Protein 1
Amino acid sequence: MKIVLLDSLTFGDTDLSGFDVLGEVNNYKTTSPDQTLERIKDADVIVTNKVVITHDMMNECENLKLICIAATGMNNVDLDAAKEKNIVVKNVAGYSTNSVIQHTFSMLFYLMGSSRYYDEFVKDGSWAESGLFTHVAKPFFELKGKKWGIIGLGNIGRGVAQIATAFGAEVSYYSTSGKNDNADYPKETISNILEQSDVISIHAPLNDATKDLIAHSELLMMKDGAILLNLGRGGIVSEDALSYILDAKPIFVGLDVLEKEPMAKDHALTKIKAQDRLYITPHIAWTSSEARTKLISSVIENIKSI
């Protein structure tokens, strides 16, 4: 069995030796669109995280039996074409839930605690020169008693809600599909979530209902001092609107996802003045060591199942 890994660099230092016992493995750290067909044309199994597999590519792959998507989202594979050609497509769900939940709180406390400011205050020598044992120029606040609005109350959203509640936050949620009814937390409109919440976190997929869900007018609804965290998908929060509003309104924003990844060098968010109220991480919420190990183990099991 010929197995092709197309973008193994996304797995970091995760042990990939489990693939070797399954067949002949070609491991490519990265694959560009013009390299993809040449690399997969003789494969029995493709493993891809984000490399796109198209209808035309599948037509050239006579031996292809299985496409393993090393992720939950499946939008990088033409599923209709795969079904037409009797090619099985398998993804992995639930492997990164704990990792994303943890990163949500990491981003929150970085912003809420003015961590960037205080770290720099110490490291640039300002604390040593101050003559005081403490420094409280940037106040921070407790999560207890704050209103936390969750957009998308799936597995990740529920996990965030449980921990936020343990900190004493008052949790409510907005269902992006309109179908989620959870008796544990109040269900709100998107307007109420934006207007009333001290913390808003997004854990929803990108689709027609969520594209630009948070744009210019929605950002203006937010309370001064409120924190917005997007750990769902880029495109749910309008980056153009955000690049304008952040300098005009005192809100705090944490983004782990952007509409185009990697981020463009000249992205508008790199040019705003309020960098201390913006925290961006490079789509890492899913990447804890444990999550990546679980992901690869699940992909290997998917291959064994055919």
Protein 2
Amino acid sequence: MNDKDQRPVYMDHAATTFMRPEVLAAMAPYFSRYFGNPSSLYRFARESRKGVEEARMQVATALGAEPEEISFTAGGSEADNWAITGVASALRKKGDHIITTAIEHHAVLHTCEALEKQGYRVTYLPVDGDGRVDPGDVRDAITDRTILVSVMTANNEIGTVQPITEIGRVAHAHGVLFHTDAVQAVGAVPIDVDALGIDLLSLSGHKFYGPKGTGALYIRRGTRIESLIHGGGQERGRRAGTENVPGIVGLGRAIELATADIEGHNRRIAAMRDRLVRGVLGSIPDTRLNGHPKQRLPNNANFSFRYVEGESILLLLDAHGICASTGSACSSASLEPSHVLLATGLPHEEAHGSLRLTLGDANTEDDVDYVLEVLPEVIGRLRQISPLTPACARMPEVE
């Protein structure tokens, strides 16, 4: 039914998504017709400003926020960097301690590591075998010098959804700000920043069928934060640089569409994911599902296959027209196993044999059938040639 010369079976939506036609249509006029600089005062430029402010309202509505609490960025990584360094700089006299987790995206981890070189102290909390953070560990780690807790809403590799309501409650009980990287969660998990107790939230447009190079940072009114980019007075003086008007317009339309019917969307995607998980675990022995079995993103299925290596799995799947990942696309060039899987306690050699399949709007039941047809053959073939495979675990080759 499928092969490498036909339409690829794309199951790497956690890495990026296609752009919805409605989003592209909303952006199109701002590339040519409404090209004015939104900071200019004449009527022609006000059309660009109108597009930016409409998008700001769309993002705010999706998050249960106020428009003035939304600042646009060039993506989720910038938003993460800004949230952490901006708060650290603004509150340096109050404290120098930040709490995060061992499984955060590198946009958070590397930012925290950079702050450590400047004299800040960072606590990296452990997670359990399913990748969940214990809110009690957050409470125990807080000191009188703690200024920020940063815990992602849902993990980009294993899909585990964190108890952020409880974590936010713990942070606020001690007068500490709470930031969450919601890059993977927006459009998949209902988010209300007030109900969840979130002070800062990062998101990225290309994760929910919007344009690449777009993002936003929600900053609760009254939160002290320094600018990350200095220059002009854009974004209420918080983020300098001429606005990416077409991208911002596309981001606004994309988040509006992505949050319009989260429950109905999740039902369809989760049903395919569950059938995929059952099929893989039922047909391939020595396989583990990574991440929490229930508290996980509706589109995420992450497996570890003993005795094989993830990159080899990807190459053979690609030869059959299946697009997947061994973990985070942001670090796919690394030869090191996933820091997320290692943090859950998975042995080094098993972490190397991971495969992330993330479904999206274009996927069908036929796609699931095809993966379930091809993947056992791929794993069996790799195990036949792997020196790690014991004789009793070798799967018979498929003719």
